[in-house]
Design a protein that fits this description.
- With about 180 residues, the protein is an alpha+beta fold.
- The protein folds into two domains: about 120 residues, Muramoyl-pentapeptide Carboxypeptidase, domain 2 (2-Layer Sandwich); about 40 residues.
- The chain is built from four helices and five strands, in the order H-E-H-E-H-E-E-E-H.
- It has a five-stranded mixed beta sheet with strand order 1-2-4-3-5, covered by helices on one side.
- A hairpin with a 4-residue loop joins strand 3 and strand 4.
- The longest helix has about 35 residues.
């Protein structure tokens, strides 16, 4: 018994983001920011994005055991799926568009929070790394030892690049000397 739903972007309708409990859509301005970013992500797949969960009122958030300060309650989050594309692949393509990215077994959580955060909520033993390798900023989810390890890895990678460049330069010099 869905009422008429207005189109809010080329590929999304208001009802897709409505709370499953009360039918509200939350903050319209935040919704439009979220939808604009979902359109950007959709352009990478050229396939429809299915919104599993959008805005949640506090009652609904409690019913689904959502985080106490869930981005869904701020109209800043969506749990999404794309047919034929894994949640891990969606997460990798969402980097640079969304700041909050969570991977689950059957869907990907994306949100427009102010700071970067990523997590893996899958139940698989061998969890695939979904982080953006170019992003060396520590996630809000990392512990201090993990942050220190990330910094060490970034420094090691930088040293490897320097070594690689100096080897290439010295290789060019030796060619000039021969010729």
């Amino acid at each position: 018994m869905r009422q008429y739903s207005r189109r809010i972007s080329p590929h999304f309708y208001e009802h897709e983001f409505a709370c499953k409990c009360c039918g509200q859509i939350g903050d319209k301005k935040q919704l439009m920011i979220l939808v604009a970013r979902l359109e950007m992500l959709r352009s990478k797949f050229n396939k429809p994005i299915k919104v599993i969960s959008g805005y949640r009122c506090s009652n609904h958030n409690n019913k689904v055991d959502g985080a106490k300060k869930s981005q869904h309650m701020l109209t800043q989050a969506a749990d999404i799926m794309v047919d034929g594309i894994s949640p891990q692949k969606i997460a990798k393509l969402a980097h640079g568009i969304f700041n909050g990215i969570g991977v689950y077994d059957s869907f990907t959580h994306v949100d427009t929070r102010a700071i970067r955060a990523s997590w893996d909520g899958t139940t698989k033993k061998d969890k695939e790394d979904v982080s953006d390798k170019r992003d060396t900023k520590p996630s809000a989810e990392k512990s201090l030892p993990e942050v220190k390890e990330s910094i060490k890895d970034a420094k090691d990678t930088k040293e490897e690049r320097k070594t690689s460049r100096s080897t290439k330069v010295s290789g060019k010099e030796s060619k000039k000397e021969k010729g």
